[in-house]
Amino acid sequence: MKFDLYLFDLDDTLLDFQKSQNIAFEKSFSEFGILNAMSLYFSDYKRISQNLWDQFERNEIQKEVLRVRRFEVLFEQYGIQLDAHKFSDLYLHHLSDNNFHIEYSVDVLRAIKDANKKIGIITNGIKAVQYKRLEASNLKTFFDFIVVSEESGSAKPHVGIFEYAFQLAQMPKNNAIIIGDKIEADILGGLNAGISTCWFNPYNKQNSTPHIQPHYEIKSLLEILNFK
């Protein structure tokens, strides 16, 4: 194995967040008695939520505000008469209960662990949700440590969250790599921290920020085992 420390993003890198959020969204609306126009609402919700997460990563909004504001904006747009705070709590409850492995995630984590390398999670997600999803996914035992932005005091791509991870790892960063699906959070963050970077790009997306270049780009997690 090429690296001594493997840092993984969680959502859409090891766990299929897109599938989980779709299910949580539909369940939440159904429980509030709204069954029509679901695909339209969900499409706009994803756009609104991503814009707010981008603001969070730029330190322009707090996570506690984000978790409710995305539903406030959606409900205002469509004139939906629901309490955004209550809806957010229900959505996060359902999100915590849904987890689906990205293909080969278990195989790759097991191989890294068997090679006696350290593995950590580094995520900007909501702490309570991420810990519950990890517990339910049976992946938690593979990790030597878990870093959530709420605990570290900073979020990807800021270097502070990576420095916090290196402290927990109790090892230098000179042979570490971050693997994640987001160029402007995972890859930029790794570059800011001075470590190797791997963009997990299973859908062959175009890099919309060509000034941010990962050291590796993979379509399958299995490719991690062949790094040289």
Task: Report on the architecture of this protein.
By secondary structure, the chain is α/β, with parallel strands linked by helices. The protein has 2 domains: 5-15 and 101-226, 3-Layer(aba) Sandwich (Rossmann fold); 17-97, Putative phosphatase, domain 2 (DNA polymerase, domain 1, Orthogonal Bundle), CATH 1.10.150.240. It is 49% helix and 12% strand. It has 9 helices and 6 strands; from the N terminus they run βαααααβαβααβαββ. The chain has helices spanning 17-31, 38-57, 63-78, 84-97, 105-114, 127-137, 149-152, 159-169, 183-193, and strands spanning 5-8, 118-123, 145-148, 176-180, 196-200, 216-218. A 6-stranded parallel β-sheet has the order 3-2-1-4-5-6, sandwiched between helices. It starts with a strand and ends in a 10-residue tail after the last strand. The model has no long low-confidence stretch (mean pLDDT 95).
